[in-house]
Design brief:
Blueprint (H helix, E strand, L loop, with lengths): L2 E6 L19 E7 L6 H11 L4 E8 L11 H21 L6 H5 L2 E3 L16 H11 L6 E5 L3 H11 L5 E6 L1
Parallel strand pairs: 2-3, 2-5, 3-4
Antiparallel strand pairs: 1-5, 1-6
Helix pairs in contact: 1-2, 4-5
Length: about 180
């Protein structure tokens, strides 16, 4: 399985690999693009992600399509994982403070285009998910924005094309 991570940084970066230290005292900003329901791995990944949600500044959770699920997005499934997290969040905060409320996480959920590939890209195809990405990129925040693509790269492609001229962008592809 391949994953793509993109980072938008408001200042010029010359490195060709992820920076080793960026404001180590602050949380890293993160947007997740997920083809949740294509198979069980993204549901499991959200469970794991939320166990570390107090250490990350989550800025978006976008339901997308993928090669395995071309005609539907399932933001409702992200919300179901958040509902389960909400039941244990008070206990998590007993052990270590800073876990976001389920309400805060629900406010981050958006849908991408319910179409696959280039059919989902182009004029008039913006979605709540693609607009969230633009808002996160344009936010006045000196920290890099990490975008983790678990599925649905077309949502990211649309925003990359629109925002690339605005500042440096670095991408890493992991296997």
């Amino acid at each position: 399985m391949a994953a793509m991570v993109a980072m938008f940084h408001p200042s010029a970066l010359q490195a060709s690999s992820p920076p080793s230290s960026v404001a180590s005292a602050s949380k890293q900003r993160l947007v997740i693009l997920s083809d949740i329901e294509a198979d069980p791995d993204d549901t499991q990944s959200f469970v794991r992600l939320f166990l570390y949600a107090n250490q990350i500044d989550l800025e978006g959770l976008v339901a997308t399509t993928s090669v395995h699920m071309k005609q539907a997005v399932h933001a409702d499934s992200i919300r179901s994982v958040i509902d389960a997290y909400g039941k244990v969040q008070p206990n998590l905060n007993l052990h270590e403070p800073g876990y976001p409320s389920a309400g805060r996480l629900h406010a981050l959920v958006r849908e991408g285009q319910p179409a696959y590939g280039m059919a989902a890209v182009g004029e008039g195809r913006d979605t709540a998910g693609s607009r969230l990405i633009v808002q996160a990129i344009e936010k006045d925040d000196p920290r890099p924005l990490w975008i983790s693509v678990w599925g649905g790269g077309t949502v990211w492609h649309k925003r990359f094309t629109a925002c690339a001229p605005r500042g440096p962008l670095r991408m890493w592809r992991g296997l």
